[in-house]
């Protein structure tokens, strides 16, 4: 039996029932693919539903305020996806008359749409014979066909792209792509794959040569930097606080935060001295360190070590670098999830 026939047969018996698979609407498919980049299906599903509820069409998303989009994205991480999502919605609405490109080549021109996402939209919405290639596909094909090339290189990606193009069903490209995604997600998993129940067990090179746990090969490792953040949570007698929007091209761009002391080296800080230098017009009643142990927050390339400090004041003075808002209004702003969770855990009174 051909690879794609065997794969699709497995898929029809085992597939996950997901809302974006019930439509050919490129907007819904695009939305789901952007959300599911770097995100598990279980985590991404509520966000997909929330975005479709708030923005049923690409025009609705284009017309939304960026702060609203960022707040709705809060907790998903990799926030450049949300910024690109909003930018591309405006591009489609205002430059493409609200119509998505109907082919892989033109979809690739959209900001935030890479090869995998373009292939998914092109095949599922328009039936184009173009395969998806991601971590699941690397894993499935490397194991079944015994491909030992290093998947961290561009050359290897082209090798897998060519192999997937050779294998894809010309009659059912959409079903094939969804099948190989699911096969990698629930059958040929990174750890403890379900080999005894695998329809490819007789042909699988990795299984028959005892290399399942060695494939795919990835030699390059991401270097993770340590970063130390101290957030200063000012609260006055009227329950007002300072916040600011992150605008630099760094982590959490366009999200909000409290005043911050930021460094890549671990060293002791003198909060009182910093307040005297940077907030000289703000009288302070009390300084309380809210957590003695670091809150650890891990990003793809950074491991954040976070302390939170409460700075109690009679009344906040105007400061050109910060916006003064009521504590009860903080839920209207998009914060990094680690700050959002801490906000909900503390008592400011």
Q: Overview of this structure, please?
A:
The structure is a single chain. With 349 residues, the protein is α+β, with helices and mostly antiparallel strands. The protein has 2 domains: 3-214, Orthogonal Bundle (Endonuclease III, domain 1); 225-343, Nucleoside Triphosphate Pyrophosphohydrolase. 40% of the residues lie in helices and 14% in strands. The chain is built from 14 helices and 8 strands. It has helices at residues 3-14, 26-36, 41-54, 58-62, 66-73, 80-95, 104-107, 115-126, 135-145, 154-167, 173-187, 205-208, 271-278, 337-343; strands at residues 225-236, 240-245, 256-257, 260-263, 286-289, 295-298, 302-313, 323-326. The strands form 2 sheets. Strands 1, 4, 5, 6 and 7 form a 5-stranded mixed β-sheet that branches. Strands 3-2-8 form a 3-stranded antiparallel β-sheet, with no helix packed on it. Strand 6 (295-298) and strand 7 form a beta hairpin. Helix 9 (135-145) crosses helix 10. The model has no long low-confidence stretch (mean pLDDT 94). Its cofactor is [4Fe-4S] cluster. Its EC number is 3.2.2.31. Residues 35-186 form the HhH-GPD domain. It comes from Myroides albus.
Number of helices: 14
Count of discrete domains: 2
What is the name of the CATH topology of the largest domain? Endonuclease III, domain 1
H and E order: HHHHHHHHHHHHEEEEHEEEEH
- Averaged pLDDT: 94
Indicate the radius of gyration in whole angstroms. Answer: 24 Å
Helix content: 40-55%
Structural class assignment: alpha+beta
| Beta-strand proportion | 5-15%
How many strands?
8
CATH class of the largest domain: Mainly Alpha
| Named CATH architecture of the largest domain | Orthogonal Bundle
* Ends distance: 69 Å
Low-confidence stretches: none
Inertia-based shape? elongated
Largest sheet: 5 strands, mixed
CATH superfamily of the largest domain: Hypothetical protein, domain 2
């Amino acid at each position: 039996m051909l690879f794609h026939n065997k794969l699709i047969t497995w898929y029809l018996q085992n597939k996950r029932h997901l809302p974006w698979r019930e439509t050919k609407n490129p907007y819904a498919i695009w939305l789901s693919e952007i959300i599911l980049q770097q995100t598990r299906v279980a985590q991404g599903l509520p966000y997909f539903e929330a975005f479709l509820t708030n923005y049923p069409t690409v025009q609705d998303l284009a017309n939304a305020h960026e702060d609203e989009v960022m707040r709705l994205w809060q907790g998903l991480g990799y926030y450049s996806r949300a910024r690109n999502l909003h930018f591309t919605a405006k591009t489609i609405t205002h430059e493409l008359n609200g119509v998505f490109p109907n082919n892989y080549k033109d979809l690739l021109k959209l900001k935030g749409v890479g090869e995998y996402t373009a292939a998914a939209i092109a095949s599922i919405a328009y039936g184009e014979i173009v395969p998806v290639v991601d971590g699941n596909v690397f894993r499935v094909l490397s194991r079944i066909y015994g491909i030992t090339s290093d998947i961290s290189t561009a050359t290897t990606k082209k090798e897998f792209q060519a192999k997937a193009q050779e294998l894809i069903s010309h009659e059912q490209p959409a079903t094939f792509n969804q099948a190989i995604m699911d096969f990698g997600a629930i059958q040929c998993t990174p750890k403890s794959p379900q080999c005894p129940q695998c329809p490819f067990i007789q042909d699988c090179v990795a299984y028959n040569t005892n290399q399942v746990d060695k494939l795919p090969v990835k030699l390059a490792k991401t270097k993770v930097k340590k970063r130390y953040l101290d957030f200063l949570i000012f609260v006055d007698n009227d329950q007002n606080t300072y916040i600011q929007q992150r605008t630099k091209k760094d982590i959490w761009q366009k999200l909000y935060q409290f005043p911050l002391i930021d460094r890549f080296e671990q060293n002791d800080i003198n909060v009182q001295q910093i307040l005297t230098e940077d907030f000289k017009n703000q009288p302070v009643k009390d300084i309380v360190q809210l957590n003695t142990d670091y809150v650890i927050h891990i990003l793809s390339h950074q491991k954040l070590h976070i302390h939170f400090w409460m700075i109690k004041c009679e009344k906040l003075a105007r400061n050109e670098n910060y916006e003064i808002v009521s504590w009860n209004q903080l839920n209207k702003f998009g914060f990094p999830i680690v700050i959002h969770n801490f906000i909900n855990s503390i008592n400011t009174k």
